[in-house]
Amino acid sequence: MQYKTIRFSRTHQIEFITDLKKQVKNYFDQNNISTYGNGQMVLKTIVMFSLYLVPYFLMVFGVVTNIWLVLGMWTIMGIGNTGIGLSIMHDANHGAYSKNKHVNKYLSYVMNLIGANSFIWKIQHNVLHHSFTNIEGMDEDIDPGPLMRLSPHAPLLKAHKHQHIYGWFLYGLMTFLWLTTKDFRQLVRYKKLGLMKTQKRTFKSVLTEAIISKVLYYVYALIIPLVFIQAPWYIILSGFFIMHFITGIALGLIFQPAHVMPSADFPIPDKDSSVENNWAVHQLFTTTNFAPKSKVFSWFVGGLNYQIEHHLFPHICHVHYKKISEIVKAKTEEYGLPYYSQETFFAAVREHAKMLKKLGRESYQMAS
Questions:
Q1: pLDDT at position 4, please?
Q2: What pLDDT score does 270 carry?
């Protein structure tokens, strides 16, 4: 199925998003604030880069040499790595970090700095996931490969019976796929789908960029540490693994409980490749918020606990999500639409675990 053939309703409850956009715009106008980032974002950027870079230089320049402290430095780098991805790169890739397009462009390249490719991820996330959330064959976030089943419409394998047990470990390996084969496989697939042309990039230019950026990444993130850090090679490799595992499992536990939940819909387009709801209402039926009262958690994960607001307004910086969530929730109640939200992060993870277990059972069927 070609992504262009999917059509959302242009009439079904269209008043909801029209009214909501008006109310959200009024909020920013009346308070005379920008929809982009502010001083909080600048401070957060400094903190996240510091968490990632300071431990690196402390090890490389020989300030930290104790093997346990070295592993601790890699652990802190993993936290910083996660924060950079969730709180900086993500907003920049959506054009929400700054009203200056160049700032967004260059900060989005932070994705290359941590081993992946910004352009390829932008197609997967911005174009496919945000456009066709939870639609089998279109949203690659629910298509992680044969080892896991994240959609009730995906093929069921015997191994899936235990995915609620082993799935967490696979989440931790997520960024290792970025470091190796995933970007290249996606690039070939996107070329076949014609997505390269729509993004005004050539296959050759993106391939060259991906190869060069990965080489540079391995040089600074692995080769230089192996040469200069005063610790056994296996400690350095262990630290490198710890850093990426922390990032991988954090990303998995933030993004997947937002959509792969018992409450989530997984609609199947009809024969004409049409979806019953309009795009905005579709986002409400497929998305879940969590931990809305936790300011510290929300700060660290880049407001992605407000996934509903993010999906409805991806071009608004996440520092505003908490405020506009009040508007969104009120409007969903007014129009009789769902607003799924888990009170805590752990509650969301627990529900996601239940969903993984259900999806691993052949007897489980979800209405389309």
A1: 54
A2: 83
The DSSP annotation for 90-126 comes to: HHHHTT-S-SSHHHHHHHHTHHHHTTS-HHHHHIIII
Closest residue by Cα to residue 356 from 259, 237, 236: 259
Dihedrals phi, psi of 8, to nearest 5 degrees? -95, 155
Query: Which of 178, 188, 194, 306 lies closest to 254 in space, CA to CA?
Result: 306
Q: Greatest CA separation found in the chain?
A: 64
As a whole number of angstroms, the distance between CA 249 and CA 238 comes to 16
The answer to whether the CB of 287 falls within 8 A of the CB of 266 is no
| pLDDT higher than 80, residue 239 | yes
How far is the C-alpha of 162 from the C-alpha of 261, rounded, in Å? 17
Mean pLDDT of the 149-153 span: 95
CB 159 within 8 A of CB 147: yes
Task: Name the residue ranges covered by the structural domains of the chain.
Answer: 3-359
Report the pLDDT averaged over residues 31-43. Answer: 95
Q: What angle do CA 314, 317, 319 make, to 5 degrees?
A: 130
Q: What is the mean pLDDT of the chain?
A: 93
Return the closest-CA partner of residue 266 out of 162, 152, 360.
152
Query: 136 vs 77, 154, 155, 237, 256, CA distance in Å?
Result: 35, 7, 11, 37, 15
- How many whole angstroms separate alpha carbon 35 and alpha carbon 283? 21
Around Cβ 193, how many Cβ atoms within 10 Å?
A: 17
Contact 73, 239 (CB under 8 A): yes
The answer to whether the beta carbons of residues 104 and 272 sit under 8 Å apart is no
Q: Of 349 and 195, which is predicted with more confidence?
A: 349
Q: How far apart are CA 167 and CA 160, in angstroms?
A: 9
Residue 297 near residue 305 (C-beta atoms within 8 A) = yes
How many whole angstroms separate alpha carbon 57 and alpha carbon 284? 44
Q: Report the interhelical angle of 14-30 vs 321-334 (nearest 10°).
A: 140
| Mean pLDDT within 80-92 | 94
